[in-house]
Amino acid sequence: MPLALVPCADNHRILLFPFGSTVATAVYGQSGSFSSNVANLGGVSASSLNYPLGLSLDSAGGLYVADQFNNRVLYFPAGNTTAWRVYGQAPEAVSMLTATSTALTTASQSLGGRVTALEAANVSSSAALAGLQTRAAGDELRLTLLEQSNATEWASLGALAARATALESSNATAFKAIISLQGSTAALIAANASTVAALAVLAGREAALEACNATVSGG
Fold it and tell me: Are the C-beta atoms of 63 and 55 separated by less than 8 Å?
């Protein structure tokens, strides 16, 4: 199928159109992207261009491109948008640049994987931290409840101590009253003894008087 190659120097690319079509089917110089127009996209490599001007096709359909601002000519085999040969720079430049680009892509993918793993680890760490914070909040609540319970118990102990002190004071007063009663009882007993003694004396005197009266009466 006949094709048309159109250099677009200001956009640093070459577009491939099938004859009769206004929609390009391939792009050179932008790593396959139709929406970018960056000079040396991703760095100078076998698939980058910087202001391409001259084009030439060989009998096999291979494409020669004058890559002006990169000071080189690139050769693209038919149907390939990555150069296989370079003119004007070191012969191994294309393969070296391609290898470098591949290595960078691999490194980027590796870093992307590591970033994803780190993000996942961060999510796990955040979840673990949230769990620890929840546990800490629960522990703080339990500690507060224990402190309140201890305060209540201390208040109860204080009330019991006050009651014990009051009972001790009451007991002391009771003992003092008992001792006073004991003194009063002893005094009453002593008074009763004196009364009994006095009654005995009176009884003796009455007996003597009666005896005397009997004698007088008999005489």
Answer: yes
Counted residue by residue, the chain has a size of 219
> Given its phi and psi angles, is residue 5 left (phi above 0), alpha (psi -120 to 50 degrees) or beta?
beta
- Express each pLDDT in 96-119 by its tens digit: 555 554 544 554 565 567 657 768
Q: How far is 28 from 65, CA to CA, in rounded Å?
A: 10
- Residue 14: CB atoms within 10 Å: 23
CA angle 23, 27, 28 (to 5 degrees): 155
Does position 14 have pLDDT exceeding 50, yes or no? yes
| Domains assigned to the chain | 3-89 (2.40.10.500)
pTM of the model: 0.43
Cα–Cα distance measured from residue 27 to residue 70, given in angstroms and rounded to the nearest whole number = 18
